[in-house]
Each structure stands twice: as structure tokens, then as C-alpha cells.
Amino acid sequence: MGERRTGHVALGLNVLVYGYVPSAWRSPLLAPDAFLTADYWDRIGTLAEAAKLDAVFLADALSLGNPSYDANPIRLDPTVVWAHVARATEHVGLIATASTTFNDPVELAGRLLTLDAVSGGRAGWNLVTTRDEASAANFGVDALAGREERYARGYEFAELVRALWDSAADGSTVHHHGRFFDYDGVFTAPASPQGRPVIFQAGGTRQGREIASHFADGVFSAEITPETARPHYRQVKAGAVAAGRSAEDVRILPGLLLTLGSTEQEARRRIDELYDTSPSVYSALWLTHAMGVDVSALDLDEPFPEDVLSGPVDPETFRGSIGFRESIVEQIRQTRPTVREYLRETRYSGSGHGGFVGTPEQLVDRIEQWYLAGACDGFNLQPDILIDSLPIIADEVVPLLQQRGLFRREYETDTLRGNLRGAVAASA
After folding, report:
1. For residue range 260-312, what is the model confidence (pLDDT) as tens digits?
2. 151 φ/ψ sector (left φ>0, alpha ψ -120 to 50, else beta)
3. Which CATH number characterizes residue 155's domain?
4. Could you tell me the CA-to-CA distances from 108 to 83, 119, 122 in Å, in that order?
5. How many domains does the chain divide into?
6. Per-residue pLDDT, 426
7. Domain residue limits at 30
8. Which of 61, 71, 374, 417 would staple 22 via disulfide (CB 3.0–4.6 Å)?
């Protein structure tokens, strides 16, 4: 048996407005328009900080979602929201998702440095390339660029943004002449209090992992089983070393859909009620998008056909997440459910991202097992409803992690980069 890992887990919170289930807005603790109020966002930020989480993530959206299968069809600009939350908090990191396809690197570099300045060094950027045609149409683009081109632009975008941040810090001149961008000059902006804002990358493609290996401080990954998570973990870490970095420069945080109860039965009743009061077609429509196959055309009482699991999926034209699809297919291959069984089981085991339904003690067991097995450096938690789950995370989950020596007892720094460095562990 090898030595136990040192350091501790990193924990983020993916703020899907009210929660990841479509009926989260029906919570008696919420007004339907609560997300439009400053008090709501202050409450989420302070609850996350009470749990001593490393960071909160908030996604941007470049088109309106379909409320029949999108739990959060309306999004607010995350940099504006987090700039407000920065006033109500002192330590928790503030990570904004932003697209490299529909943003300008100079403008975004300045916007993120502004957030970093007003938050005292707690800003982060979750890099995505955008995969939906509705966003392209919103920008007057007839068709979204292919995956290879989007990721090539994303790589160059990250390269230029990082150079601009360094220029702001030391006054150096940036000379960038690439396929997508040209820039000559000194970038005038407030220097980052943490050296550079933190970069996370979300995406499980080969190209996405290459960006992560070269530029990212963390990866928001999609994993359902430790069997697939471990090789992906090693792949990104090895890529970082090949790029001249340390394996510990990159924190790997799979998303984890979360429902907690005082007993497992109570937690299952809770998630069943939340799904039963959600649109009935939600799961099938989401899975159709995630797999690139019309699930409604499949026999619900038969296993998934092999041709559905094996493809064909053209990475250039498939608009879903490759990482989500890979994790879903692996889960189906391991359990061999019927389509109907899988759609119901995703309530408990997740779909795309892993799922957890159970007690705080069982959740801590799950986190410990994955962490010690070298499948992750922590998790990006995604509760079903944020407003009543975050107090449980702070009051019950985190103390159990602390008792096992798996999490900090107090924040050790005032910056997001410092938070993540404090979680450095020996490589598994």
C-alpha cells in the first residue's frame, strides 16, 4: 500500500442559479425572481464562504435556454454578479465562465483583472469554447465553427490573455501575431493581486485537455466513475509536466450533482419529489442533447443499442460535450440499464457529471475514496437546491472532512490562487 496523500481536497461550488434541478425555483425559501436581487447572490456567496469553499463558479450564457429542459434558462453576467459578491465576502474565489469564441481577449483580460482588483485577488476564469448554434445565431453567425477551429482559437486566446496579464504586472511589451489575434503594445490595466487570475478549463476533449495542460490552474471535469476519472487525471497531469509545469500546478475537480438527507431514503425521496415536479420530458431532452441521439425514438424498455453507444459521433459536428458523452456511455456500459431505467437512475447517479444522493457521511466517504484513489483533487459541488443545501455542506459535510484531515479548518490566504495552492497533495 502506498503512502497516504498529503494536502487536502479542493472544493468548488457550481452556482446553477437556484440549483441543478428544474424545479429548484419552487423552493418555499425562494421567490421566483430571487436571482434578480442582490440579497440572493450575497446569501450564496456568504454561505459558500461559511463552508470555507475554495471558489464559486457561475456560467455565462450567450443565448436563452429552453425552460422545458434547461434548469437555468436565464443567466446574468458572472463578472458583474461576482463583483457585487466580492463586497460581501473576503476569502472565497469568484470564477466566471466566459467563451473564447464570442469574446475578445483584450476586453476579457481587462474585465477579469478588474474583478481581480476589486475582489483582492479572488478572480478566476473558467475557459469554454461554446458549442451551441443558438449562441452563434445571437452574434449573427450562420454556423458555429468546427471543434478544431474553436479549440485552436481557445488555445491562442488563453495564450494572449496570459501575456496581457503579465504585461499589466510588469510593463512588458506584448508582441502577439497569431492565426486569430494580433497585438503589439503594453497592456494598461490593474495588476493582479494574486500574480494572475486563476484559469480553469471545462471540457474533456483532447484539445481541451491540451489547453488545460498548458494554461489551466484547474479543470472542471465531467466524470461518473473512478475507473475513467483516473486515466483522465493522469493524462492532464502528464501533459502539464510535458509543457514544463509541475503536475501539482493543475487541480482536477469533477462536477458532482448533489442531494443530501439525514438518511439515504430521505435523500431519495427529496430528489424524486424534485424530479416529479419538474417537466416530464426534461431527462429525455437533456440526454438527447448530451448523446447526439433522439432518445424519444428508442425503445424505453430495451437496453441502449450498441450503435448508439459506439457512435458514429463526428467530433467536428457534434454539438454536445464530448466529455459528458464519454462519461455517460461508460456509465451505461458498466450497468447495462434499459433506456427507461437509465433515465430514472440518473436522478441518483448523475448524467454527464457524477451524481450523489445520500447522507453527509456517505458524501464524505465518496470524496475521500476518489481523492485517495488519485481520481481527482476535489470536487465542484452542484446541489439540487443551493439555498438549503449550502448550510448542510457548511455545518455537516465540511466538519466531517476536517475530522478526517481532508479539508482546511480556516482559510489560509486571501486569494484564490493561495486557496488552491494550499490544497497541494502528493501525486497519486
Report:
1. 999 999 999 999 999 888 776 777 777 887 788 888 888 888 999 888 888 75
2. alpha
3. 3.20.20.30
4. 14, 16, 16
5. 1
6. 38
7. 10-263+353-421
8. 71
